[in-house]
């Protein structure tokens, strides 16, 4: 931070370039284009692909509102598909139904969210999108450090959006995000879109936005990036402890990891049919459990959508995130588990 303050350069300077190079290398992709947030990363990624007004983009109905907001900001219309109840990610059958419906005709892209750090069903989603000639893009805001069949999330499709919001697995000290891609031309367009559409200083070639990463955030991210793998393994260890301890608690449904995948455990999410009472019970004992996300996208006024999304609605009513971060003290895990076990699940 001191280095940045002395440099006199505060936006899109040497720290940002170095972070872009280091982050891309950590994933094994050619380009990372740093932007101002994860929501911006979605918008800039879609615009970079030439997606905007008149196009449609499909997203899962069970996802944070940021996903819908980013898509709408690109000018595209949002279509929703349901999720797989057990995995929390986009359901290939529901996606197929959306893409085959009359509404699916103008769909240009599908945004698969690796929710909570669980890789989406990439091979099946790829089959469905390829059959319909539609782009399949990744939202990796919650999946830094996750792997799908040995490949890091973020490298599965043509491009991926990341967030470095302060609670994420790789976290800045404020808002920050990035789009990664192996496509040189796309990377060039992304760099234009993030800064007024400039192809040279003060000369715009396309419709762009102002979404630039600060040097301070890039400098912080450069310090933290080398610790990502260790932090994600700590998250996995904590998740394993929770699973071992809570296996016998029959009223709770524990998270499962998709086969041949490595979960990044951005969140450890259990399910209970009495979620709200359980949440109150935990809060009364000082346990900071929380709900990601209490209302599915189609149930929110801003994103109302036709269609039926039963798994998304069920999850919104049942999910509960237990405390999990790399610095969680070992003794906190039994305390949380005892409180869960003491709850009368009825
Ligand atoms: C899945 C997902 N996508 C996109 C975003 C947007 O990221 P940001 O908060 O950095 O705009 C978030 C985080 O809020 C997220 O969890």
Q: TL;DR?
A:
By secondary structure, the chain is of the alpha/beta class. It is 37% helix and 16% strand. The strands form four sheets. Strands 1-9-8-5-4-2-3 form a seven-stranded mixed β-sheet, with helices on both faces. A three-stranded antiparallel β-sheet has the order 7-6-12, with no helix packed on it.
Largest sheet: 7 strands, mixed
The CATH superfamily of the largest domain is known as Type I PLP-dependent aspartate aminotransferase-like (Major domain)
Number of spatially distinct domains: 2
Q: Summarize the amount of helix as a percent range.
A: 25-40%
Structural class: alpha/beta
| Separate helix tally | 12
Element order, helices and strands?
HHEHEHEHEHEEEEEHEEHHEEHHEH
Mean pLDDT: 97
Q: What is the CATH level 1 assignment of the largest domain?
A: Alpha Beta
Low confidence ranges: none
Query: How many beta-strand runs?
Result: 14
Shape: globular
**What is the level-2 CATH architecture name of the largest domain?**
3-Layer(aba) Sandwich
Could you walk me through the main structural features you see in this protein, from its secondary elements to its overall organization?
The chain contains 12 helices and 14 strands. The protein has 346 residues and is of the alpha/beta class. The protein folds into 2 domains: 225 residues, 3-Layer(aba) Sandwich (Aspartate Aminotransferase, domain 2), CATH 3.40.640; 115 residues, Aspartate Aminotransferase, domain 1. The strands form 4 sheets. It has a 7-stranded mixed sheet with strand order 1-9-8-5-4-2-3, with helices on both faces. α6 links the parallel β4 and β5. α2 packs parallel to α8 and α9 runs parallel beside α12. The longest helix is centred in the last third of the chain and has 19 residues.
